[in-house]
Amino acid sequence: MTEQDPANKPSLNIHPSVALSKKVFVAHSLGRGNKVVIEGGCNIIRLKVTFAGSNNTLIIRKHCKINCVVVFKGDGGSIEVGKMVGLVDAVLHVEYGTSIEIGEGGIFSRGLIVRTGDSHSVIDISSGKRLNYPASIVIEPWVWAGYDVSIMKGVRVRKNTIIGAGTLVNRTIPESECMIAGVPAKVVRRGVVWDRRSLSEDPSPRFLDSLLQARGVDVATITDQSGSKMRGRIYSKVRSLFR
Question: Which SUPFAM superfamilies does the UniProt entry name for this protein (predicted)?
């Protein structure tokens, strides 16, 4: 903990089972009523938290692996990292009462940036209005992001999305079970799901069925590359094996 006014020190609620290096854990607060909650089974490789405001909250759920810099700017912001999330080398930046929500099971490679605001203001000259107010971000469960991905204000990333390396996600892609890539992001493949394991061969129907059920995927509702519904083909083929 860095030296500061004792009244400004954040509340730290860290489960005893958390693997935490005190040499790299910093929670610096310039306001009051800030708190950090880390649930059991987490491995905190590096966590630097700066509160430049009051009444902000960081919650890290169970069994996460975290290497991350977190910045709160202004009051009333929140970040919740779901269980079993891996942040290899990330920056999470929340501004002025907005929030970042990361769903369970996601893995995020080096260079991830998630920002609810731009830090600086863009002002329309004719109207005198600011054009780039901060907005909250939701990353749904089971998202895999490659190297150097940026996720910007107001975005919602749907479940089971794969994000290619170097992608800029600056708008919501209203599809799940897909791959997105590019600057800005666009869908490059539909009807896909990912697994943490590097498989040496194609998965068996039983393995695939189990994976889809665990991820909440209804194959009958998603489309393939041609835009056709998968029902009657893959869905029926897989399910018929277990009747």
Answer: Trimeric LpxA-like enzymes
Tokens of 114: 């998630």
d(CA 77, CA 92): 12
- What is the rounded distance in angstroms from the CA atom of residue 90 to the CA atom of residue 110? 7
Assign 1 a pLDDT band (cuts: 50, 70, 90). very low
pLDDT digit string (tens) for 44-63? 999 999 999 999 999 999 99
CB 148 within 8 A of CB 164: no
Neighbours of 161 (CB within 10 A): 25
pTM for the full model? 0.87
- Beta strand pairing status for 112-115 and 150-151? parallel
Nearest to 113 by CA among 87, 79, 86, 133: 87
Name, in order, each residue with C-beta under 8 angstroms of 206's C-beta and a sequence gap of 6 or more: 241, 242
Token representation of residue 193: 């799901």
Beta strands in the chain (DSSP E): 11-14, 19-20, 26-29, 35-38, 43-52, 57-60, 65-73, 78-81, 86-95, 99-102, 107-108, 112-115, 137-139, 144-145, 150-151, 156-157, 162-163, 168-169, 178-181, 186-190
